[in-house]
Amino acid sequence: MNNAGASGWWALSRGAWVVLCAFAAAAALDVSGADHAHTGHPPQTTMQGVVSLDVYRDGDTLHLLTGENGTNEAAPAVIYRRSDDSGMTWSIPVRVDQGMVASYGGRRGNDYQVAASGKRVVAVWMTRGSGWGGSGPLATARSSDGGKTWRAGANPAGDGSTAGQSFAEIIANRGSFHIVWLDSRDKNQGLRYARSTDGEKTWTPSTTLDAQTCECCWNSLLTTESGIYALYRDKSPRDMVLLNSPDGGKSWHTMATVGTFNWQIDACPETGGALAMTPAKILHAMIWTGREDAVGLYHLVSADQGRKWAAPRRVGGEMARHADMAVAPSGVIVAAWDELIRGEWMIMASVSSADGSSWSVPRRLSDSRSQATHPRVVTTRRGFRVFWTEQEKDQPRVWKSMAL
């Protein structure tokens, strides 16, 4: 959701929000069955500034990928930066998609993605195609020199489709890259998966992890000693579901519903979740629900690698949303989210040193003059760093970060 319209949406009553969200879902569905839109709103192509942001930590290096619209840009430029000092300074920006398939749209919540393993870096973005609103297939680029130079990679779907593929999430694990995304190849929006073991030159044949999911919520991946976890929003009810692969993506198993709210609605909430695991092997999730009597953001804990979850505990106020979290080697957890308070969208953060059983009083990070949304949190050797995008009135949107 773009910042300019955010306060208007969320100043509405919960009941009015449900009606509008249902309308968005109806607009998103292609009644012919040919394709689903991947969001309740068309991709943003005219907003100037930063329309997309993702950050990935690999060892002591932070990798930042943004989608940036200039005054005369036909499509957002895919821009890469890296930092080797915990985000204090950044490399000169590098244009990733130069000479490749141009990006299309770009909006917070459906961000271009980046992952890295040593000198190997992979970037992913959506292109124009035959899907709803002009959405199209994923494009990838790969670098073998730490992001200095880039060349085109393969589409992980591998099916030659020109329809929309979006809400991608990519991670690296033991030298392999793993990616999930949403597409409607079976006439229903579903969660797909592929992996690459050769630096993203090729991908395994894509598989379906869930044939029918929510149309337009981002997905989250997490690698642990217990394997790879995937968190996504299901179709009916619109609750968050956790999958696990104990064998590097070869097989996947449903673990549990994370927060059984039984939210029944035909709508596009455009909000995924966040996962983190502490050194004590306690799995943490941050999820949002729009259920009428429980609207808000919640923290949940699992002590058995995701099979069972404790009762959800509310985080922030009723208007808190769009959360991320990270864990330090010491076990300290930082959660960040955006929240509408007194007509302003602001980035809030809270810290827990008790494995999530208690949290500090939330602290505002973003500037009071801006509308700020969609934080990302990473752990660095100097602590935590939170990233987000914000926009002052009549100004281009910019990305910001702050060390905690």
Overview features:
45% strand; Neuraminidase; globular; 6% helix; four-stranded antiparallel β-sheet; mainly beta
Outline the structure in words.
The chain is mainly β and about 400 residues long. The protein has one domain: Neuraminidase (6 Propeller), CATH 2.120.10.10. Helix content is about 5%, strand content about 45%. The protein contains two helices and 27 strands. It has a four-stranded antiparallel sheet with strand order 1-2-3-4, with no helix packed on it. Residues about 1-45 have low confidence and may be disordered.
Question: How do you describe this structure in short?
Answer:
With 404 residues, this protein is mainly beta. It contains two helices and 27 strands.
- Mean pLDDT reading: 88
Can you list the strand order of the major beta sheet?
1-2-3-4
Give the number of domains.
1
CATH architecture: 6 Propeller
- Low-confidence stretches at least 5 residues in length (pLDDT < 50)? 1-46
> Which geometry do the CA atoms define?
globular
**Count of separate DSSP helical elements:** 2
Order of helices and strands: HHEEEEEEEEEEEEEEEEEEEEEEEEEEE
Task: Give the number of DSSP strands.
Answer: 27
| Percent in strands | 35-45%
End-to-end distance, in Å? 26 Å
- Structural class estimated from helices and strands: mainly beta
Helix content: under 10%
